[in-house]
Amino acid sequence: MTSAHRHRAREAALQILYLWQVGKTDIDRAAETFFGWQWPEDEPLPNPDVVGFATELARDTVRRLDTLDAHIADASARWRPERMAVIDRLILRMSVCEMWRDRNTPPAVIINEALELARTFSTEDAVKFINGMLDGIRSKLDETR
After folding, report:
1. HSE-up (13 A, CA, CB side) for residue 123
2. What is the pTM of this model?
């Protein structure tokens, strides 16, 4: 899958997670809803690899919430994950999940993608916050590998 496809898949995964969180629905229904909204029946879905990567990343993030939130809370002296802005928390969760599950993708690439998502969906302050958080979490994950 190209880097552009992976970026699009990460955007989709974040939007699926947002639907899951705000809509209080299960993750599979959120994915179905997202792809149904984005691509109506009369238009083809995006590359199947994009759909698969996005859906699996969102599912894995939800499956590992307790572990991911523990890493995030450990890296943040002042902010519990539930006190963070929803979109920032979801970017952190998803990025930590990807670092944890996909050791073939360099952490620097995952962090850069997270910063791009924050620039698109959040604020410049969030970009700095997410960068610091993910750098600290990456260091701790490197110690456990």
Report:
1. 6
2. 0.91
Say how many Å lie between the first and final Cα of the chain, rounded. 26
Q: Are residues 98 and 142 in the same domain?
A: yes
Work out whether the CA dihedral 97, 98, 103, 106 comes out positive or negative: negative
Task: Give the tens place of pLDDT for each residue, 4-37.
Answer: 899 999 999 999 999 999 999 999 999 999 988 7
**Quick one: angle between helices 124-144 and 86-101, nearest 10?**
30
124 and 59 fall within a common domain: no
H/E stretch holding 119 reads: helix 107-121
Domain that holds residue 4: 1-63
Cβ atoms of residues 9 and 46 within 8 Å: no
What amino acid occupies position 95?
S
Q: What is the pLDDT of residues 37-55, one digit of tens each?
A: 766 566 666 788 999 999 9
Mean pLDDT (the chain) is 90
Entry field: residues in the chain: 145
Q: How many helices (H) and strands (E) does the chain have?
A: 7, 0
| pLDDT given at position 106 | 93
